[in-house]
Amino acid sequence: MDLDKESLKKMFPNLAKELGDKDNKVRVNSVRTDHEKGEKAAVMRSFDDYVPDVVDFIRRCDTKEQAEEIISFLENRREIDKRCAKKLRDQLKKNGVRSFGSKKEHDYYLRHACR
Q1: Stated pTM of the model
Q2: 101 within 8 A of 55, measured Cβ to Cβ
């Protein structure tokens, strides 16, 4: 169903107002390319038996150079394959280190384990 802005306003005035309201914007600052890992990380309540993945390590980085070092290290250890490393490098180059998520500070897992 195609709608122009005026038809949307007439049919769904409240929705049109919400969509146009600048206060209702949500900033996306994280991208995960593996849906299952992303879902698992999003619903995790406890870090028991949790094994950090490459994105978790990248989120501790301050610079693109540090993130590249992590990617190369895990690729050399064969913990990630070349295809995965290329996708991560492309995302890093295009969107920067924070595109993987907000920075995980010291004691992140201790502070977020029992939310």
Answers
A1: 0.58
A2: yes
